[in-house]
Specification:
- The chain has two domains: 243 residues, Rossmann fold, CATH 3.40.50.1400; 124 residues, Rossmann fold (3-Layer(aba) Sandwich).
- Helices cover 35% and strands 12% of the residues.
- It contains eleven helices and eight strands.
- The strands form two sheets. The chain has a four-stranded parallel sheet, with helices on both faces. A four-stranded parallel sheet has the order 6-5-7-8, sandwiched between helices.
- Helix 5 links the parallel strand 5 and strand 6.
- It is globular.
């Protein structure tokens, strides 16, 4: 029987990020010669997840193992990807076993440590030298899920203690608090002569560039401190090995997610009202509509030009994209469906709607329910979709994104 693996990514409007993700998939193909590996995305980039599943099914797959290409289990891994997989499995009679996210893992910590050491060595540090005069700031993506946010803090602590930094702090690129700017301003007051900023991200994109831009802004205000920018994880060999481990967990039946801290299953402090929300994906309106590779306003990297371009340029861009993609989205997406989909330990079949906390800054840079960057250029109205957006309880936090407070 055919061994079929589906790698499920979030997707980005940044073409370089998608090239890196497809490069990771290519490394998995080499690492797993007995497996047929496809990849797809929730939004913007193509192929979308169901297109990858189509290729596996048409190639003879009778069972598919699916892995989320996510560092941590927030709404994308808990809601959106399972919803897409459940819908496809029900429509096509194809069993799909869903694995867990990369998560807190010794291999991932080692990969992160190597990236940080690369940065330090490039700035004159030698292996074995003490780092007591140096501070580490780990920047996570940020989510409306406290479990995912707390995992970034745990990664930071393990790197801080493992590498022997003088101090460590955590910041986030969006959604939650503290953001990069306030976090680095706080760090600059602690008296360390050198601060390493490490984006705990798999790939490049709008958010990674935003993190480094914010670092430059704060560094300009504090010339007495050396701000070092460490590279993100990328398709490090240890990252690839962690994906292989997640595959074997499905096969071995040890595929357990941290459901004890899941806000959709348990009454997590501050998020009690979200227990048992129905499960669905909110990404249909931006599924497969393209990235900066398809955009006439950007080159390879998304610049957000669609947000500031004159109306005529946006209209021309929309017209070209509509013809290029033909995204009628005429496929069915039943909502609130019975999740009969085969999840080991029912890790992701929570039966809930992903909350996306008004002002959820994706790496495609749109604030859900407000403005969509390229999605707005396509004439998508998120309000037209019958999705539940549970309010983020700390949307008015002074160190969080201004967009979080919008209603």
């Amino acid at each position: 029987m055919m061994n079929a693996l589906m790698l499920c990514g979030h997707g980005s409007r940044d073409a370089a990020a998608m090239e890196e993700f497809s490069g990771l998939a290519a490394k998995l193909v080499k690492r797993l010669p007995d497996w047929t590996v496809e990849h797809g995305y929730l939004e913007f980039a193509r192929p979308v997840i169901r297109e990858g599943l189509d290729r596996l099914r048409e190639g003879g797959a009778r069972r598919v193992l699916a892995l989320p290409g996510m560092l941590f289990a927030a709404g994308h891994a808990k809601n959106d990807i399972p919803s897409v997989l459940n819908t496809y499995a029900a429509a096509n009679g194809l069993p799909i076993d869903y694995g867990r996210e990369l998560g807190i893992d010794p291999k991932m910590i080692r990969a992160a440590g190597e990236r940080i050491r690369e940065c330090l060595r490039a700035n004159g540090w030698r292996d074995g030298e003490p780092l007591h005069d140096t501070m580490l700031v780990v920047v996570g993506r940020g989510a409306s899920d406290p479990d995912a946010n707390s995992n970034v803090a745990k990664v930071m602590r393990m790197l801080w203690e493992g590498l022997g930094f003088g101090w460590g702090e955590t910041a986030y690129s969006g959604v939650t608090f503290p953001l990069v700017g306030p976090g680095l301003e706080h760090a600059s007051r602690l008296g360390y002569r050198r601060i390493v900023v490490f984006p705990y991200f798999l790939f490049t994109g709008v958010l990674v560039r935003r993190i480094f831009d914010e670092t430059d802004i704060v560094a300009a205000r504090h010339p007495e401190i050396a701000f070092l920018k460490a590279p993100y994880l990328g398709a490090h060999d240890l990252v690839v090995e962690t994906f292989v481990d997640r595959l074997h967990e499905i096969l071995d039946g040890t595929n357990n997610m941290n459901c004890g801290m899941c806000k959709y299953r348990e009454q997590v402090l501050g998020f009690e009202a979200e227990v048992g929300l129905p499960q669905e994906s909110h990404h249909h309106h931006v599924e497969g509509i393209g990235s900066s590779a398809d955009c006439t306003l950007c080159d390879r990297a998304c610049t957000g030009a669609c947000k500031t371009a004159p109306a005529k340029a946006l209209a021309d861009h929309r017209h070209g994209q509509d013809h290029a993609h033909g995204h009628a989205h005429d496929h069915d997406h039943p909502h609130g469906s019975d999740h009969g989909h085969h999840h080991h330990d029912h890790a992701a079949a929570h039966g809930h709607v992903h909350d996306h906390a008004h002002g959820h800054d994706h790496d495609h840079g749109h604030d859900h329910g407000h403005s969509h960057g390229p999605a707005a250029a396509h004439g998508h109205d998120h309000g037209a979709h019958d999705h539940v957006h549970h309010p983020y309880p700390h949307a008015d936090h002074p160190l969080g994104p201004r967009s979080m407070a919008r209603r």
